[in-house]
Amino acid sequence: MALYVALCYYDRDQPWDSVPDKEFTPEYTEFARRATEAGVMRGGEALHPVTMSTTITVSGGKGGDVLVTDGPYAEAKEVLAGYFLLEAADLDEAIAWAAQIPAAWRGKIELRPVAPAHG
Question: Is 119 within a domain?
Fold first, then answer.
């Protein structure tokens, strides 16, 4: 089994309340229930709007000057709105589950394998 993160992207100009896609909460809840019951979902959360983001840059490498900027790292038409952590047998299974996330038809899903941390 491998871990995949399904990153949910939406149009930046979409009107959000406190959480993206509030009107689709039941669809997300149903997806999470099915994925959890199937043993696929390992976690996931919605993110607050990109307007609440903070970007941190350290110049000069470790121990360098810390620069903090309000807002996202990049100006983009689409923004990261949330994620699901999925455990699947292979990429095909991960794609099948990711296609059921409401963001797949309301925006886009970027699916990435999770790289194991090396200690």
Answer: no
Mode of pairing for the β-strands spanning 108-113 and 2-11: antiparallel
Domain extent for 90: 2-49+75-113
**pLDDT the model gives residue 14:** 66
Supply φ then ψ for residue 112, to 5 degrees. -130, 140
Q: What's the CA gap between 37 and 16, in Å, rounded? A: 29
Tell me if 118 is assigned to some domain: no
Q: What stretch of H or E contains 101?
A: none
pTM: 0.79
Q: Residue 16 falls within a domain, yes or no?
A: yes
| Domains of the chain: total | 1
CATH number of the domain at 99, please. 3.30.70.1060
User: pLDDT under 50 in the chain at which residues?
Assistant: none
DSSP type of residue 77? S
Q: What is the pLDDT of residue 24?
A: 63
16-44: b (≥16 Cβ within 10 Å) or e: beeebbeeeeebbeebeeebeeeebbeeb
